[in-house]
Amino acid sequence: MGTVTAADRTPKQDRSRLTRQRLLEAAVTCLAAHGWAGSTVAVVAERAGVSRGAAQHHFPTREDLFTAAVEYVAEQRSGALRALFPDGARDRAAVVAALVDLFTGPLFKAALQLWAAAAHEELLRLRVTEIEARVGRETHRIAVELLGVDESVPGARETVQGLLDMARGLGLAAVLTDDTRRRQRVVNQWSALLDEALGGGPVVTEARS
Amino acid sequence: MGTVTAADRTPKQDRSRLTRQRLLEAAVTCLAAHGWAGSTVAVVAERAGVSRGAAQHHFPTREDLFTAAVEYVAEQRSGALRALFPDGARDRAAVVAALVDLFTGPLFKAALQLWAAAAHEELLRLRVTEIEARVGRETHRIAVELLGVDESVPGARETVQGLLDMARGLGLAAVLTDDTRRRQRVVNQWSALLDEALGGGPVVTEARS
């Protein structure tokens, strides 16, 4: 490897990163559509247009691939959520709606399949529990920041936690049927409750540089 | 069958009802422990100590058995919830805690496995959606009654719906880890917020005869 120069190493690294990314995205789509029992490294590799060998180089086991996929997509969605409110949030209802959106769509459907499988597959349980803890902490942090919550106020932390539990429950309700209209009404009402609980009026958080 | 008298028909019906009940309860336990892929009529029959033929007489298909099981246990739990507050509820926090309890434990874990499978099995999806709608309506009715909610007040219906979504989300959080302490704090905080939203003070609903 001593003859590889920086100039030709970089495109290889780019290709490798791109392959990895395609595998992760295909894995989430596959898990959401077919469940854990129907999701293997081979199926994902084919969907991603990547050789099975290359897929196994990146992800030696099925558990590696699917847990990495759910975490990768969750991080992307968290980043996109922050980017929605670059100057801080002035409208709590908009923040609540955006938080609830985190729990609908293919990522949540994929995560649900992973949870369901982890409930009876020991190999998965520990991995999924770790990811859930990390992703959950990050989502809580974003919610506190965008909602302008002072967590030193007694109860404020649990108010936000309950809101995120509600968002997760709304996500579950949306897995089998289109629950959009009911969800919108619940989001409006709970946004109003939250505004009262946290102190009403528009929230202006610090602009993030 | 003309020679069968009422006297000997009744014990047979009792035995049949008992067999059915044992199958339904074993089905929920099996689904919670092994997921949809690991749950068949044969496995449940063995666990219930019932012959496979008898099991198939009661439930011709796997879908029949497991959807009936989740609905049966959900009805039992709803009945038990009403029985907890025979004279109406005076303490909203106790009602909220009892409602949240509906979404933890083996029934919720079994229902989650059914939802996860229904997301990619068309045969199941319609059946599970129907059951969910029925069980959901009944749970909402009980919540409104025990919380003493006047649904003609704008937003009251959505307040209760959001509470039940939160309960479902708390249930999901409890599938992989013991989340009891955090759940208790969230329940306390949202009970207080709900009390304010619905009009404070103890609730006295009509005693049910």
UniProtKB/TrEMBL annotation, chains A, B:
Keywords: DNA-binding. Transmembrane segments: none annotated. PROSITE patterns: HTH_TETR_2. Gene3D superfamilies: Tetracycline Repressor, domain 2. The keyword Endoplasmic reticulum does not apply. One of its GO terms (molecular function) is DNA-binding transcription factor activity. Residues 40-59 bind DNA. InterPro entries: Homeodomain-like_sf, HTH-type_TetR-like_transc_reg, HTH_TetR. Residues 17-77 form the HTH tetR-type domain. Pfam families: TetR_N (PF00440). This is TetR family transcriptional regulator.
